[in-house]
Specification:
Elements (H helix, E strand, L loop, with lengths): L6 E5 L5 H11 L5 H4 L22 E5 L4 E10 L1 H13 L3 H17 L1 H5 L4 E9 L8 H15 L4 E6 L2 H9 L3 E7 L20 E8 L1
Parallel strand pairs: 4-5
Antiparallel strand pairs: 1-2, 2-3, 3-4, 5-7, 6-7
Helix pairs in contact: 3-4
The chain binds coenzyme A.
Length: 213
Amino acid sequence: MSGDKGYSIRLATDSDMDSVVELLRHFFVKEEPINSSGPKPMDPTELYSLKFLGKGMSLVATSADGSVVGVCINNEGTPAGYADRARTKESTTNRHMKKVLTLLDKAEEVADIWNKYGIDRFFDVRIITVHGSMRGKGIGKALLEKSLQMAKERGYKLVHIECTGIYSARIAEQLGMECVFRIPYIEYKDQNGQLVFNVPEPHNEFKLFVMKL
Ligand SMILES: CC(C)(COP(=O)(O)OP(=O)(O)OC[C@H]1O[C@@H](n2cnc3c(N)ncnc32)[C@H](O)[C@@H]1OP(=O)(O)O)[C@@H](O)C(=O)NCCC(=O)NCCS
């Protein structure tokens, strides 16, 4: 699809792993707004979501020469999976990771998706990243749009995405997703009144979106 636009989108496989790790090394761990506010970029191979790349739900965007220029890592979200993430928050010794997971957990708790929508699984868009030189061409939007389509075809009743930055949130809004939790970073403070994340402009809030299918 979209070959005339200078890129195409296909299902990711495990053989894309090395290219995706390099893409994430340069354009996710350093640029995703919350990660980039941490003390140092994490090693992309430590990203929990990476293991879902070749499981038949994730997408890559490739340029005309076949290079991977975008990725959307998806998997099935379940209450057990989210409980597991909450346990990781308790056990991790990485302070930044603990802070990130605390915010994500708070969002899930307030949004209360499992009860509110009466579901026990959703299509989870976990990581979306586009190469710096290919931004603003609609690749991010096409990756999310294709994910929404895939979710529908596979019988999911809901799609879920946590947006830490303004551009991914803009894409979710443009595709008609509903914001079920939001918090401006300037209002997210610890018990001493200190900002938890110093997120660079123009990324001003965290938003959790869903789309009912
Ligand atoms: C978020 C991201 C995937 C968007 O990818 P993209 O291919 O540039 O997205 P699109 O081209 O579909 O553009 C989405 C919107 O953001 C805008 N946008 C994207 N990059 C922009 C930039 N650097 N400056 C201004 N606007 C920008 C686009 O103009 C578009 O809005 P519009 O339709 O109103 O014009 C990309 O910015 C990225 O990889 N960021 C780093 C990783 C990250 O933060 N991931 C998301 C975490 S939740």
